[in-house]
Design brief:
The protein has 17 helices and 11 strands. The protein has helices at 10-19, 66-77, 108-126, 154-159, 161-174, 188-193, 206-209, 211-223, 262-270, 280-292, 308-311, 328-345, 363-372, 383-387, 391-398, 412-418, 436-450, and strands at 37-39, 42-44, 48-50, 82-89, 101-102, 133-139, 178-181, 228-234, 296-300, 351-353, 378-381.
Length: 451
């Protein structure tokens, strides 16, 4: 079971990691975070990444609304040099919620304004933006589409290549440096990665399960040649069951005599340690994507709807009542070690590591150690950026975070997004504890809707 975050120093949390035999490293030298990084032909000014997060605060027709624009102004001004903009649907029917962003001819001008405001805020705060890399995540939500998508047949899947290419064209014209072909968190392309039992050209073999993503990547590379392609991809879809052999990144897990604890077994299994080999297929597919011209990989795992503790390890049940089944340090370890194995196998492919937020004020000490040791290329920051979007500037100017705004992983952001719908269709995600002026009243409204 999870434990409350009780660490009062770097030495405390390091000792706990050692006690649990978890390979989580720390460095007091934060300079690796601020080294420039090469992605394709682009030099990124530092190794800090804002992760893509679904905001649920666009307009009903898919344009960024004021809360969306505010978020990207804050991200732009924050100092991170890789901003990975949130999931944006390629079709209206593909949206995960009625306020998810959508990229088409009607929304492109508003999306361009969002990007311009983000870059302008960065220039005003940092002096220039020529080393700021900004991309956009393209998605189809599959079974999680808010309109209740039914099973998608092969003809439908084959027709999806064109909407992805159309969205990529708009993204390039707007000024994004790259598009992310989203293959994570249970959405359509992620679900296909585990479609071993599906008949036809999109199921069964790894070649078939990756066919649609491969076709999309190839088409974008041909039709939009000046645009970089990236992918945020699940490398582990386990759920803690002893038999999860059908899931991407998993093999059969058995308890062996003498292993320490359920949490340790899961942590060992998830890293591919001992006889458990889990990264064969993810490594093959990521390697193939690199050959197809994918320039950047963002490593993640799990599904926010069914296994949120895998996506973002947290210590206490959030307001929606989900109980994490393992110590969150095991989840952090899983993220770090799996990214480490992939990065070492493909050392020339830049990779963003995830799963840091539980470490709170020690997040960047772990990130610096991972960069120092070649375990990742970028440190990805998700929900922690909602609480303190200027984390990069705080670290560079003060040498530490503002402790009054450090994300404590209570998951109010997730609970807000998943609360009962309001009259506009969705509550936006944000940080009620540390962005109270804007999201405090929204949280109060959400709680009233639950009563």
């Amino acid at each position: 079971m999870a434990r409350f975050f009780k660490f009062h120093s770097l030495a405390d949390i390091d000792a706990e990691c050692r006690r649990q035999q978890l390979d989580i490293r720390f460095s007091e030298d934060l300079s690796p975070l601020f080294r420039p990084v090469q992605v394709g032909s682009f030099t990124v000014g530092n190794a800090l990444c804002i992760q893509p997060m679904e905001g649920c605060d666009g307009t009903l027709d898919g344009r960024p609304d004021e809360l969306t624009l505010r978020r990207y102004r804050r991200f732009g001004a924050g100092g991170a040099k890789l901003i990975w903009a949130e999931a944006t649907a390629v079709l209206d029917e593909a949206r995960a919620n009625p306020r998810q962003l959508l990229l088409n001819d009607r929304t492109a001008a508003s999306m361009e304004d969002m990007l311009k405001q983000c870059r302008r805020a960065h220039r005003e705060a940092c002096g220039h933006d020529d080393d700021l890399l900004v991309g956009l995540q393209l998605t189809h939500s599959g079974r999680y589409s808010y309109r209740g998508a039914t099973a998608l047949d092969d003809d439908y899947l084959a027709r999806l290549v064109d909407p992805y290419v159309a969205a990529a064209r708009f993204a390039a014209k707007i000024g994004f440096h790259f598009v992310d072909i989203k293959q994570c968190h249970g959405y359509l392309l992620s679900e296909l990665l585990s479609a071993r039992a599906r008949p036809g050209p999109y199921g069964g073999s790894l070649e078939n399960r990756t066919r649609l993503a491969r076709d999309i990547i190839r088409a974008i590379r041909v039709c939009v040649p000046g645009l970089m392609v990236a992918s945020r991809v699940n490398v582990y879809d386990g759920d803690g069951n002893l038999d999860q052999s059908g899931q991407f990144g998993c093999s059969r897990i058995r308890k062996n005599a003498g292993e320490a604890s359920d949490a340790r077994i899961l942590a060992n299994a998830a890293t591919g340690g001992n006889e458990h080999t889990h990264l064969d297929e993810p490594l093959r597919w990521i390697g193939e994507m690199a050959q197809l011209g994918v320039a950047l990989i963002n490593v993640t795992m799990g599904c926010p709807y069914t296994t949120p503790h895998l996506v973002r390890p947290f210590e206490v049940p959030p307001p929606d009542g989900y109980e994490p089944p393992e110590h969150p340090l095991c989840g952090v370890h899983r993220h770090f070690t799996m990214t480490d194995q992939l990065q070492r196998a493909l050392p020339h492919l830049p990779m963003v590591g995830s799963g840091y937020s539980y470490l709170q004020e020690y997040l960047f000490h772990a990130g610096a150690a991972n960069l120092r040791d070649g375990r990742a290329t970028f440190v990805g920051v998700g929900r922690a950026a909602l609480a303190q979007p200027d984390f990069a500037r705080q670290l560079q100017e003060q040498g530490r975070l503002d402790r009054k705004r450090v994300c404590r992983t209570f998951s109010y952001c997730t609970a807000l997004m998943r609360s009962k719908k309001n009259e506009l269709g969705q509550f936006p995600t944000g940080c009620p504890p540390f962005d109270k002026e804007v999201y405090g009243p929204i949280w109060d409204q959400a709680k009233r809707s639950e009563s």
